[in-house]
Amino acid sequence: xxxxxxxxxxxxxxxxxxxxERGAIGPAxxxxxxxxxxxxxxxxxxxxxxxxxxxxxxxxxGLPGLVVAALLLGAHGVLLDGRVERARLLxxxxxxxGWQERIEVVALRAEEAGRGPLRGAADLxxxxxxxPPAVTAECAAPLLGVGGILVVSEPPxxxxxxxxWDDDVLRTLGLERRAVPxxxxxxxxxxQVQNVPGRYPRRTGIPAKRPLF
Length: 213
Description:
- The chain is an alpha/beta fold.
- It has a single domain (6-209), classed as Rossmann fold.
- Helices cover 38% and strands 19% of the residues.
- The chain is globular.
- The N and C termini lie far apart (38 Å).
């Protein structure tokens, strides 16, 4: 990845290759995955001047969170995943990269994290393949402080974002749509313009079982 010290880029690539070997990252080439993950940081930087803390929602094998961490060097990050085995792998990656002081791995379901100490703590939430739009919005919004940004990857051949995301429900969650800078990839972006009502997120599993839209 351009702009990174060669040793950091090499270690990052090796760790993501390990994730791929263990089935935590899809089969596309690593260059594809790295470029796509880097676009999250590009969009976030265009939409928000200062990012002190970010959360990677459902980090899995470390995408996009590890790449975002590499590009936003001044930010502290949380790699959030409810699967213990994935969290252990992420901890190995963070240790190999020497990022223990600024990157934390949290093994919690997103609904639990949004009702706990991570609530309202992030300037940026990124989500890559986490869940359908309604679930992603309900789980991400409580993690954001007012003024924070949510950046979500979209399927390349999906319906237009305006049809996948319900603006009325987004407003209920305190989110407003933002125009996405051109990156060559499909993304949606939102700003947290007010605090999330205390009833969100609902209990674990309910957002997926009874989506808001």
